[in-house]
Design brief:
alpha/beta; Rossmann fold; 6-stranded mixed sheet; 8 helices; 6 strands; 34% helix
């Protein structure tokens, strides 16, 4: 990314956490706090050399075990001289709150709560899962995080270990596409310049 704009141009690297047992089953996973299946996940470790080489000013995770364990595994591999990088927890980086649909599959929802499920699929900004949040509510908390940190006069980059839905939401905002258009795999890495409204997926 181009830093020609000076110290106000902060790059955020967004990494989707490693695999959990519920990701493998294709279930909606939001507030359930489960650990990684393995900290030696090749989908994460493939980025280590690249991440170690970046000049970080801060690192964040969402407070969920799957994001914290992913970040700690990266942090553990940093050079000793980089071990003073501050790590923060910010719940604004959490996955969508799926409410009563937590740990349900799309197939189950289609068979058992078809009308509400289809309303949510077609208009996620307006409809929420029972006791959950709309995409509009999620967007509000996510934008508040980026507006806050992008305004700080920092030189370097910030690593965010977060969740698939949040990355998809940001992609849809930046690229003005449907929330469902971008597929975000486990261990995917993206670079976002919030001020320039520029977001790219980093490929191997």
């Amino acid at each position: 990314m181009d830093h020609a704009g000076g110290i106000s141009m902060m790059d955020f690297y967004l990494l989707r956490h490693g695999k959990t047992k519920y990701n493998e089953k294709g279930l909606l996973l939001g507030k359930t706090d489960v650990p990684l299946l393995s900290r030696e996940d090749p989908d994460l470790l493939k980025w280590i050399d690249r991440l170690v080489a970046i000049s970080w000013v801060a690192m964040f995770h969402s407070g969920m075990k799957r994001s914290e364990e992913t970040l700690r595994e990266i942090y553990r591999r940093l050079d000793e001289k980089k071990k003073d990088i501050p790590i923060y927890v910010d719940e604004r980086l959490q996955e969508m709150n799926f409410g009563e649909w937590e740990l349900k599959s799309y197939d189950w929802l289609y068979q058992n709560q078809r009308e509400d499920f289809l309303n949510w699929l077609h208009s996620p900004y307006d409809y929420a899962p029972p006791q959950g949040e709309t995409l509009a509510q999620m967007e509000k908390r996510v934008i508040s995080f980026f507006e806050e940190w992008a305004s700080k006069e920092l030189i370097g980059s910030i690593l965010l270990v977060t969740h698939g839905g949040l990355i998809r939401l940001l992609w849809s905002i930046i690229h003005q596409t449907s929330f469902y258009e971008k597929k975000v795999e486990i261990g995917s890495l993206f670079c976002l310049n919030w001020q320039k409204r520029n977001m790219e997926e980093i490929l191997e």
